[in-house]
Design a protein that fits this description.
Elements: H1 11-17, E1 21-22, E2 29-30, H2 38-45, E3 59-65, H3 68-79, H4 85-100, E4 106-109, H5 124-136, E5 145-147, H6 159-166, E6 170-172, E7 180-188, H7 192-203, E8 208-216
Parallel strand pairs: 3-8, 4-7, 7-8
Antiparallel strand pairs: 1-2, 5-6
The structure holds zinc ion (ZN).
Amino acid sequence: MGRGKGYTLPMEIKKLFFPRTVCALCGQEIHQDAPLCSDCRKKINQLRRPAEIMGDLVKGHAVFLYRSEIKTLILDFKYRDQRHLKDLFVAEILGLYEEMEMAFETVIPVPDARERRWLRGFNPSLSLARGLAKATGTPLSEKLVTRVRNTRPLKEIPLAERRDHVRGAFSASNPRAFRRGLLIDDIYTTGATVEAVGLALYEAGFEELVFLAVASNY
Ligand SMILES: [Zn+2]
């Protein structure tokens, strides 16, 4: 695949071109335009998911298994103010996007199923969707989906009941009459949220929805 390969310049030259920084995982000093050292890059490459399609009402893919180093990076991105990790995640989602060879009219972030105040207004799925929209030249739609009621944290709800719990939690508008949309999320767990959002978008006139996520729990 060749994605995510580092530069092979000698270290002396790297030091001239790239500012000194530290690996986002191990803290080792690195001289490259990437957030991870080559050892940590290898570790996350081993956490890539098999390429099978997930989901029912909305089908899609996730890049990584939500484990160990990937879990650390996603938690850093979402809750520990490591927003620069967006570039790494968007590049990975972009890889999946290109493999799908599909065109979409719009990119839509999957909203959180419950009201949450992100640190300084940061919204992880919006940040990723914005990055992918820019990278692919596809219009971003950040306001099509709205939450109409709050839900309990899905972690507290048995897997089999999550779908019922979030059903009807979202509504959607579609003023530009889009038909093909790409949903973007950070973590795909049971798909309950993605499906509830998808249902609202289908009701608003969408005909085909696909999701891409950074990581999946299973
Ligand atoms: Zn490292």
